[in-house]
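Hello again,

I reread your note about wanting to compare the complex against the isolated chains. To keep things tidy I'm splitting this into two emails, and this first one only covers the full assembly. Below are the input lines as submitted, including protein chains and any nucleic acid or small-molecule components. They are followed by the predicted structure of everything together. The single-chain runs will come separately.
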Amino acid sequence: MKYPYFPGCTLYTKAKKLDDAGRECSLKLGFELDELKDWTCCGATFPLVNDQHITMSGPTRILADTKDQGNDKLVTLCSVCFNVLKRTNNVMLNDEERRAKVIDFIERDYHGEVEVLHYLQLLRDEIGFDVLKEKVVKPLEGLKVACYYGCLLLRPVKEIGLDSMEDPTIFEDFIRALGGEPIEFPYKVECCGAFQAVHSMDTATRCSREILNSAKNSGADLVITTCPLCQFNLDDRQPEIQKSDPGFSSIPVVYFTQLLALALDLPAEELGFERNLIDPLPLLKEKGVVA
Amino acid sequence: MGDLVELTGLKDGEPVTCVAVFGDHSDFESVPVERRVMVIGAGITGITSSIDLGNAGYQVMLVDRLPSVGGRMLQLSETFPTLDCAQCTLTPRTVESGQHPNVLLKTSCEIEELKGEPGDYTVRLRQKVIYVDWNKCTGCGTCIQKCPSKGIALFERDAGRMTAIYTLSPQAVPNKPVIDADRCRYLTRGKCGVCAKACPVDAINYEQQESFFEAHVGAIIVATGFDIYDWKKKMPEYGGGKVPDVIDGLTFERYLSASGPTAGEIVRPSDGKIVKDIVFIQCVGSRNPEFHKAYCSRVCCMYTAKHARLYKHKVHDGQVYIFYIDIRSTGKGYEQFIQQSVSEEEIIYIRGRAAKLYRDGDKIIVNGADTLTGKNIEIAADMVVLAAAMVPNEGAQELADILGLKCNDDGFFIEENYKLSPIETGRQGIYLAGCCQGIKDIADSAAQGSAASSKAQVFLSSVRRQKQEAV
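Full-complex prediction:
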């Protein structure tokens, strides 16, 4: 089974490990991520005002390409790409006036025919977490995982519709299927600071500190995320947090596909853990997840 | 349509009227009218209607699906803006409704079917199984003292416990018990029978069957009241019912009540400690058109101020924080009540919404924003009280279907005209009163209860009516 796949720019660069592991795991799970041809950047922002259309031209073109290449689904791994493509597709489906403007500009024929899926959603709804559970070779036994959702995977909930925006469970169910132990922590759907990291590093540091402390206080061994920007903030801010708070002990932040790959017994050395600022390998070895 | 002349007189002590119609009288007919009224819902509204009608000489059947009358008001501690005791003001009315020669209480009953036409309605009712023969029961209460099965009390909400054979409250009218079949050991496991052995008049009947009966009435008043929005299911940001010591306002009333499960002490359900820091959050589910209810629940600003004051009267060194959007205090003496709360009781009002709350150790952390200073606020509280939206009582739509009435999107009964005929419905002889028509406070509910009784009397006093299709 092939699923058309949109990696997005970050997964070709900084978040390569999210991409690599996702592709490898899909093969183990019996499906293939078929990369879209000639894809472009999704734009990484969805317009927040109703009279702005230009930023939808990129994602609409991607969706039209998907359709023209004979597909009715498009899978993404990155929360930002997922959010932008999904919301753009909603506009194409439900808002004829805005659709017409974008379509006039890019000169393509598209009416929202493609269903945008996140990889997690694909695992839950198309593959099934019960099937996933059966395919697990090395269960993540004893690993306490803080499932960090961030914002873009869930919000705005009426447009994304993946799960509850306040108390989602898809990530926890995923970890349970892998044999790990998801822990509940109150900051699992709080913002990581996102692009604030560009112009107000302090804000991003504060947001990350609260999320990480909340996860650690709830007993987590490590944090997982679907989003390259969340991973960057939560991982990269830790030395800064330590400067202002010497008592702060670091905690690894990894992509969900990396844990999935470990549970499916893919070799740890191919999963790009060396790119993490806080090295998760000592912990994973201590827990017996990695030999 | 013709001109009418009414001639009224007495025959055998009963009023009789005949109508003379001059000109075209095809739209009118003269019909016999039942001088009886059914009131559905025995809260303060329905009780007020019933007593008014009874005093005017009409026979009233006051129906409630619960085992005793009093409704929501009986659960309240003290009432704004006068801070008088709800039970002290209400129980004389509940007792009067129980003893009034013209008022017949029909509790544990549900409306099944409506037939007939205005002035001559036949209502079919279902008498629920209560496993106690009330004709024999003297209300001595021995069975309640002996019952070994304890569970969460309906009347006390999550705050108190009660036995499987119970009366809703110690002041219940009628003061006779019923058995909760789901909790009764005899009915669930076949063993126990303690109440049957204890009963001195042999009133317990485990074999009792559901029964049906019909009532003939001329008019019907619907006063089915309100319930609390299901925040536990629908609002995970406020703990979804999973964070201990987060309760709704109606539950807090039971904590405040001197006859409540804690005898009026404000202690935490989780560990019984006295609450020192308390956060009230207003507009929980109200005024939230995107996800919850778009409307304002009207009474929460007032009752939250009342809660805060009553709390301060009990815990002098306690600190109160109230998150609000704006304060709506539109009744007589209401604004003064709010101002007094702010200036005299050292209550901190924070203009902003609480975004979320969660448990941290033995505290509840409330995250919110103070929109007047533009700052984020984090409060560590011992207890959080949510002023959850008020919604129509469960089953309102089903009742509307039976009676041929309509409900709006929020489930409130639709009146004929909101401004000029807020009591009348689309059906002649059926009237609305109280919170089932729209959220209102006790004063307005009582006023509308009286208004509905007047409307019913006006209708029943006239023997002519416009022809309309039979039901």
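For quick reference: Residues 192 and 207 of chain A are 5 Å apart (CA to CA).

B.
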